[in-house]
Amino acid sequence: GKVRAPTHIISTISDDRGEEPCYAGVPMSSIVEQGYGVGDVISLLWFKRSLPRYCTKFIEICIMLCADHGPCVSGAHNTIVTARAGKDLVSSLVSGLLTIGPRFGGAIDDAARYFKDAYDRGLTPYEFVEAMKKKGIRVPGIGHRIKRGDNRDKRVELLQLFARTNFPSVKYMEYAVQVETYTLSKANNLVLNVDGAIGSLFLDLLAGSGMFSKQEIDEIVEIGYLNGLFVLARSIGLIGHTFDQKRLKQPLYRHPWEDVLYTK
Ligand code: ACO
Ligand code: LMR
């Protein structure tokens, strides 16, 4: 009979062996002919299925809204300094990407984890936030350096508007909003930030689309797919900042002494 040598790699998302490459079984020609967008390609390669249009549109809106947030944020700053040190595109890009984490852009997965756990356990926002405080953990998805209760993040409002209009249910997002109402009663900077908005709304997308089993949702949240949206999105801006610095022929960056507190 046939003898199958053991393989060293298992792969389930794409296949380049045939006449044309396939993403999760969908040939390139169909992707082009049927007018698929980046949201569809992400659905195929990350979630291994075609998602309804409102879901892929939501993914694309996340990517567009998180593509950049000016030169002063951690990621862009690193990229700019690296580009000005004469490094190449990939080095400048990854230097910026490496700042993405629990404080900056990489709180989406934890926001989804904590909001899901708190909502599913029926905790009131008060019980949830105070329990986090007792544990000494900042609520992921809450808080911003420059956004305030009276100066909300437009990105959050746009995502919420899209979801309220197009999603069958936004129960996790509404829970995150209730958490925000409580945290804003404590301090004006404790708004629902873009990571928290995406984290809670992606839970609604996964649960409301009817395309994922409960086990699959748990796996997506546990593995942590969602920070990938910010990483992917912000790469667009970081690449732009690299080109910008090179186009402007900016010299080596050196931080001014006056802006450092030298102390013993
Ligand atoms: N949960 C509870 N309390 C908080 C939170 C939070 N998420 N954020 C700030 N606070 C409170 C704390 O009491 C803090 O005091 P502490 O330093 O004793 O803990 C006080 O507010 C002041 O906090 P700052 O450190 O001055 O806030 P800062 O403006 O530096 O931090 C940050 C902003 C990093 C976003 C913070 O709010 C945070 O850690 N949030 C959670 C992580 C997160 O969601 N990050 C994504 C931000 S959006 C983005 O990057 C695209
Ligand atoms: C961002 O998207 O980079 C921001 O929300 C972070 C910031 O400090 O503005």
UniProtKB/TrEMBL annotation:
* Source species, domain of life: Eukaryota
Q: Where in the cell is it found?
A: Cytoplasm, Cytosol
Its quaternary structure?
A: Heterooctamer of 4 alpha and 4 beta chains.
Query: What protein family does this chain belong to?
Result: Belongs to the succinate/malate CoA ligase alpha subunit family.
Protein name, as recorded: ATP citrate synthase
Q: Which residues of the full protein are shown?
A: 345 to 608 of 608
